[in-house]
Amino acid sequence: MKKINLLPLLLLITTFFIGEGLFSNSWGSDKKSDILRKGLYTLRKTPEPKIFITGIDADKIMQRLLPNFNKIGEQIMWKWGRKHKYFNGDTKEKIVIRVAVYPTVQYAEENVLDLLNDASGISNPGTDSKVDIGNNSWHYKSGDAGTVTFLRKNVLIGVFSNLYPLAERIAKEIDKSLIKGGKGIGTGKKVDAPIIHEILAPSSIEKGEKHTIIIRATDPNEKKLTYLKSSDKGRFLFSESPHKIIYQPTKVGTNKILVCVINESNVVSEVKEVEIIVK
After folding, report:
1. What is the mean pLDDT of the chain?
2. How far, CA to CA in Å, does 128 sit from each of 39, 45, 62, 148?
3. What is the C-alpha separation between 247 and 206, in angstroms, rounded?
4. Could you tell me the fold of the domain covering 195-278?
5. Residue 29 or residue 180, greater confidence
6. Is 189:52 a contact under the CB 8 Å cutoff?
7. Cα-atom radius of gyration of the chain, to the nearest Å?
8. How far apart are alpha carbons 81 and 74 in whole angstroms?
9. 7 burial class (0-12, 13-18, 19+ CB within 10 angstroms)?
10. Which end of the chain, N or C, is more open, meaning fewer C-beta atoms within 10 Å of its C-beta?
11. Per-domain residue ranges for the chain?
12. What is the pTM assigned to this prediction?
């Protein structure tokens, strides 16, 4: 009997399957348009929802989830939202919840990858227990402590605890709340994010000189705003007015000043920038 060479047929079949993405390990799809990569991290893109999360009151959520914890402080973390810190004096357990609500899912996805790349430690995809949380999630462990970071729709959540299993459990409960809605969670067809209308700054200044930069921003619902700024070639001095920045450049060249605002519902504006030539 004449031998039949099956190799060309096998190569054809294999090429077809790979082309159709049947051998892909990227969440079941190898389409580049489904994946967002920045630096060390990758996520699976999520479509913009019909109903957005429009604001979050972290205290109301935590009062329900952890009634024996007391709030001990807050900290604004640039465009990555606001940290809410809680502590149980009896058990010595600590929980820190990072909350950032963005105008779109796309903006949330870009910002979470920036956050992960900016962190000093390397986070791993998913959770340590392999429990699904959010549309995308990552975890970081250091000894007994650890953090779970995840996205749900247009919201970035980070949960740190000195006991990692507690962080994961609270992250899961917060995610359930974001899905179901309820007390402490606003929803709607669009997010009324704060808007930065204008940054008034001189086009050029001398190194070491102090100048006042004015930020004109509003919130559609007249919520209180916190103003955030960043620069790698200068320093910001104390100003009694939150929308006025006293800036002192420390290096010559083109200085970029980045600005964003966050309202009391943890909704973050888009970042705006202004360039100043320092002589």
Report:
1. 88
2. 22, 22, 23, 9
3. 11
4. Immunoglobulin-like (2.60.40)
5. 180
6. yes
7. 23
8. 11
9. exposed
10. N
11. 35-188, 195-278
12. 0.85
For domain 35-188, give its CATH number from 3.40.1390.10, 3.40.50.300, 3.90.226.10, 3.30.200.100. 3.30.200.100
Give CA angle at 37 (16, 230), nearest 5°: 170
CA dist 236 and 225 (Å) reads: 18
**Model pLDDT for residues 226-242, shown as the tens digit of each residue:** 999 988 888 888 888 88
Is the CA virtual torsion 226, 232, 237, 239 positive or negative? negative
Nearest Cα residue to 70 out of 95, 43, 99: 95
What backbone phi and psi angles, to 5 degrees, belong to 10? -65, -40
CA distance 130 to 115: 22
Neighbouring residues of 92: CB distance < 8 A, sequence distance ≥ 6 = 162
pLDDT digits (tens, 9 = 90+) for 175-195: 999 999 889 999 999 999 999
First to last CA, the chain: 87
Neighbours of 226 (CB within 10 A): 15
- CA 117-45-52 angle, to 5 degrees, is 105
CA distance 76 to 233: 21
Tell me if 193 sits within 8 A of 262, measured CB to CB. no
